[in-house]
Amino acid sequence: MGHRKIANTPVEVTALGFGASGIGNLYRVTPAHDAQTAIEAAWEAGVRYFDTAPHYGLGLSERRLGAALRKRPRDAYVVSSKVGRLLVPNESPRGTDDEGFMVRDDLRRQWDFSRDGVLHSIEATLERTGLDRLDVVYLHDPDDHWRQAAEEAMPALAELRDQGVIGAIGAGMNQSAMLTRFLRETAADVVMLAGRYTLLDQSALDDVLPAARDLGKSVVAVGVFNSGLLSRDRPAEGMKYDYQDAPPALVARALAIADVCAAHGTTLPAAAIAFPHTHPSIINVTLGMRNPEQVMRNVELHRRHIPEGLWDDLRAEGLIRSDVPAANGPERGARCL
Fold it and tell me: Which residues contact 203 (CB under 8 A, 6 or more apart)?
């Protein structure tokens, strides 16, 4: 599996990444055995970038990921985690987490983008994972905390990066406008862009992607299925788009894109995974995976050849924006495999 470097840093990530929210029991319980064997399957397939966060399962994802990687050579893989949500004792537990994870709520999340909060969060993550270091650290969803995130958290991360404690730093969000500010106004090396450069939403072409290209910085793409609408060969009514029921017009558009994909001998989910790699600033697509079957499906989709003419036809039919760039260098077609 091809590797790409986070610009201006020593950190290299594989073109496909393992998103570890699912092994933190997102929406439903993932048995420990499934989590372990999912990571093993990803490793055997060549995946070497793993992304987690304290938020995912109130630390469960970090614990499971660390346990599964502990016997692997540390220099052979890259782990990213996040700061901004400290895990603190929950004085009023009700039994189950109320933020989408099927775990006990003995802990709760506390927003904190202060310098001390960042240092404490990283220390706690290292303790939960059992790792000696984190390769990449992102500010996690700082939408309502710009000032503290930009003026306290990012400088704290930059200091750790400059000391060689962390390899690369950045921010991850579901919006592109503030990620653009992080690239232009802070020391961020990379941003994790969720859902804003997909077959159904190319709004990142208006801000964060030009900024990344102008500044020589990097982008990791997540949420490329837009919460599920692009995850099947033939989308259907009732599927989700950005965590809500997909509007009929978007379902119809996804079906139209699926028809063009079929005419080119490929599928909608394979094209959805390949599409972000058409932009030269996007170095990785990370997908959520919770069991070996999901891992192998995602790896197989990632490896499929995507004819270059697909993007041309989607542009010609007005199904993606006309300013979507042609496939990028070695990523053309089969994406650097």
Answer: 176, 196, 197
Q: Which helix (H) or strand (E) holds 62?
A: helix 60-69
CB 15 within 8 A of CB 42: no
Cβ proximity of 279 and 197 under 8 Å: yes
**How far is C-alpha 92 from the geometric centre of its chain's CA atoms?**
32
Which positions are catalytic? 56
The DSSP code for 90 is -
Burial bucket for residue 113 (CB in 10 Å: 0-12, 13-18, 19+) = buried
- pTM strictly above 0.70: yes
Q: What is the mean pLDDT of residues 42-57?
A: 98
How far from chain centre, in Å, is Cα 246?
A: 21
What is the C-alpha separation between 97 and 18, in angstroms, rounded?
23
246 DSSP 8-state letter: P
The topology (CATH level 3) of 3-331 is TIM Barrel (3.20.20)
Contacts of 224 (CB under 8 A, 6+ apart): 195, 198, 230, 272, 273, 275, 276, 285, 287
Report in angstroms the alpha-carbon separations of 52 from 86, 195, 210, 269, 332.
Answer: 14, 17, 27, 23, 29
Q: Is the Cβ–Cβ distance between 50 and 68 less than 8 Å?
A: no
| Other CB atoms within 10 A of residue 140 CB | 24
Structure tokens at 328: 């990028």
Instruction: Please write the tens of the pLDDT for every residue from 54-64.
Output: 999 999 999 99
Tell me the pLDDT tens digit for each residue of 165-178.
Answer: 999 999 999 999 99
Q: What are 80's strand-pairing partners? A: 51, 136
